[in-house]
Amino acid sequence: MSGADADRRLGRRALLVGGAAAAVGTAVLARDELSRLWWRLPDVEKARVAGAVDFRGARWVAASAANYRRADRPADYPADRVVVHVTQGGYASAVRAFRDPAHGAAAHYIVREDGRITQLIRELDVAFHAGNREYNERSVGIEHEGFVTDASSFTDAMYASSARLTAAICGRYGIPVDRRHVIGHVEVPGTDHTDPGPHWDWERYIRLVRRARA
Questions:
Q1: What's in the keyword line of the UniProt record (predicted)?
Q2: How far apart (Å, rounded) are the C-alpha atoms in residues 179 and 43?
Q3: What does pTM read for this prediction?
Q4: C-alpha span between 169 and 133 (Å, rounded)
Q5: Given this model, what pLDDT does residue 48 score?
């Protein structure tokens, strides 16, 4: 057999082996995707109660469907962190943004200065809040009314209410209450955000979350 014939034979073999490997890889990816999509098929989609909330006492205001992705967490994606945000504006402007399909982002919750909580996206679903797909899929996002440069934004009522919310989320999904799993938006890889900023009291917040979990 000539060298050229041997090269062609090896090339054909490599192509067959590579093709088989690619087929297996494609099958694995397809199976993984189907496992996440099966429940959305006609007559199979999970029943949802309109206006239902995941945190008792929260007010429901639906975000635009363009600002999140329907899912089935934690079956689709394990929820393993909470991401703390600041709205950089008032409550009403944040709600308007999250209800605007052109905005492209929304968090699961907003906590107001007076401690009242609004839920805009079910925890089942993937909110576009962190600017990082993996973090979006695995986290619950909580916005806080105010500005990162204004320490007075972060009131006692806000800290207490937000801590109870985070404690409930951590309890629901078995998320450890520590700074590796309860993080700020600024700590998400690839983000250009600075929230919650230098005035957010992390030591106080984690202490309150742990107390609420006890």
A1: Cell wall biogenesis/degradation, Hydrolase
A2: 41
A3: 0.81
A4: 20
A5: 84
